[in-house]
Each structure stands twice: as C-alpha cells, then as structure tokens.
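Structure tokens please, single chain.
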Amino acid sequence: MPTIKRILFPTNCSENSKKAFEYTLAIAQRFGAKIDVLYICEPNMDILVPGILRHKLMQEQKQAAQRMLQNWLNGFELKQVPIKQEVELGYAKEMIAIYANKQNALDLIIIGTNDSSSSFKKIIWGTIISKTIESVATVPVLVVPKGIVFQEIKNMAYITPADVPWRPVYPQIEQIAADFKGKLYVAHLPQAKYECLENENHVVLEDYGSALPAFSYNNNLQLLITVAAVRSTFQKILQYSKAQKMAFETHIPLLVLKKSTS
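Here you go.
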C-alpha cells in the first residue's frame, strides 16, 4: 500500500464469503482498483487414475469450477469494478501464496474469516489465513471478520508488535491514514520499547486480549493495523505469530503489513 490498484480476493464461493467480497468491492470502488477473484478447486480424483484420464478429469473439474465462480459473481452488483476470474487446481493454503507471489503488481490481499458452525471448517480456514499471512512475501493481507459491512474508515489504530521494530513502517501507516482521511491511534503494550512521536494519539494497552476490543469499541475503530514479524521455520512450527492470533480473534478488519513492504 498505500495506493491500491489491484486486489486479490480468494474465495470458496460460499454464502459465508459474500459479505467479505462486498467489503472488497467497496475498497476497490474507493481506490479505483481491479480485483483478481481466485477460486481454488481441490482435486477430487484418485491418485491411481491413469495419466491421460486424470488430465481430462482435471480439465472438466476446472471448467465446472469456472462456471461455479461465474454464477457466484453474478449475484453481485459489480458497478464497473474490473474483475479477473482465476481458477487454480490445488490446495488453498498453498495456492493462495503461490498465486500472490507470482504477481508483479498486487497491492492487497483481502480474505474473509469463515463463520461456519463447524469447528473443523473454522480450523481449516484459519490455517489458510495463517499460511497466507506467513507465506506471501510482501503483499499486505486484510482480514475481514464474518458479517462485516464496509464503513468509511474514519478511525484506525496501529497495534505495534512488542517483539519487532515498529518505527520503519510507521510512515507507511501514516500514509494509509492520510489516504482514508482517518484518525490514527498508536497502541502498544507497557513492556514494549517506545519512542514518542509528535502529534500522535498514543495509547498504552495492558494486553491485546481484553483491552484491545474495549479500546476499539470505545473509539469506534473501523480498521486495525499491525506488522507480521519475520520468523524462523522453528518458530513457525511451534506457534502462531501475534499477527496470526489477532487475525483469528479480531471483530474489526485487520490489515497485516509485511516488514519488507515498500
């Protein structure tokens, strides 16, 4: 960011993802951006199917997925937003990152959380969000909670990580606030090292669990922003990052920036 000209929206073409796509359309209209709508079609044939037949079945499956995606998009008023439809065969937790990392001019990924009543499906979709945040090299990821309707972003907060330097990305976050013409708060934990900045709405929160939702509600926040830490493979195996945990738990759209984002 801050200029958004091309957005990637991964979808499973479910009812649950419609609100997130409506939110994505609103962002695209706000910035005059085009949207790549990516549907990942998981292979459903047995590995023992002969090669020639397997290729034919995969093509038929992809064609059926393309029709499904088109029918899903027909349910929206696109209002002259340029839409590029993409169908890939594979598994979502890998293919979203693979697709994003191949693109040269992608500015933002928007992904909705899954509001399914099935705990298993929530875990699967949570894994997809986690993998996207972790594996996409430089593109920011905007996580849209279930049922969120787009509101003009007037109040936002930069939630500074306690374990990574926050200052290098601060000018970028200031630019995001300027683009939305919104008020920017900067919040951090008491133990985080912090150097005061002039003209800044500086807030200290006791934790990012209970204190952050209360702060967000009291200040009518429409957007949270944080930075994904660069972590080792061993750290990735052991635990989720703070950015990933926030993405799973947030009730407000969360923009996760990458440390190397320009």
